[in-house]
Write the structure tokens for this entry.
Amino acid sequence: MRFDCSEEQDALRSELRKFAANELAPHYAEDDRLARFRREVVDQLAAMGLLGLRIPEAYGGGAADCVTTGIAHEEIAYADFNTAYVLLLASLCGDVLTHACDDTQRGRFLPPIAAGEAVPALGLTEPDHGSDAAHLRMRAEPDGDGWRLVGEKTSITLGLHADTALVFARTGGDGARGVSAFYVTLDDRYLQRSGFDDLGGRSAGRASLIFDGHPAPAGSLVGGLGDGFVRVMQGFDFSRALIALMCVGCAQASLDEAWQWARDRQSMGRPIGAYQGVSFPLVECQTKVHTARLLAYEALWRKDAGLAHATEAAMVKWWAPMVSVEAAHQALLTSGHAGYSSELAHGQRLRDIIGLELGDGTAQIAQLVVARRILGPEFAP
């Protein structure tokens, strides 16, 4: 394992840091306040090749490795945590569709994602089946040579704004093997979208989607019947590390600002960083965030190397959001009364990161995955 980046990865990080600082960071607070999704940002991400990172070159993508994809997520989230969701869903869906579809489907599904013409969402969570996704109730009913989707999905990131969705529905009996995956263009004639009034992440448009006989035409089935749940679980091993890097990037932005505040702010004739009570808590948070970063990149490196990475991905899924929330909170406290106002971004970052202590599985679910892999199913909870 190497701990340095290639010249190309360093160049990408530098380019993205400048782009995000100039084009994303100035809108971060206002987009949240207005719950505004700016479609032009999708076009910008696509023009830079970011939405096709995990898509083969033959379908308009960049065929980037997982570590490079992680760098992109960390840098975008450093400036605008919620814009990183667009990148996350394109990377996750692009990766799943690349590996699960046939050539004809890839030719239809992947180029629009890479070009920013189709913003995808992931339709898995249901009102009564979040963590227990293997027992979801949404149905895919046969209709000629296709299907009709009936039921509700909830807590769908980008649900208010997505053009397409990778939707998981029951086509067979109970349990994981009765779940299939469909990639569909969202048609509001058969779909009701209802947004949530969230604590954070407002520009990401988390929503409930009610499917009322929504068409899933022939050719929309991804993989075989009953393969849906298996496909998404494999994809989550990848996306959990990306989520961790989103949290790390956001937390690092607050830590960087807090360190500078500790240099600039004076108390009793000295920079406040000269006091252990200020600098030591920041050191603790910096250390924890750094460990999360290393674990996330290890998971991605292992995937690139064709090695098992589910344990590392599950570990970092619960660890990174937790320590990133702590870091943003400590940065807020370091900044005193200014940190408690919207003058600084710490409060917004704190609210945004909290969403990923829940999304894509709670800490308890991730810990359950790790326990079962270490102990074996017969000895674990």
Summary: Residues 228-264 form the longest helix (37 residues). The mean pLDDT is 95.
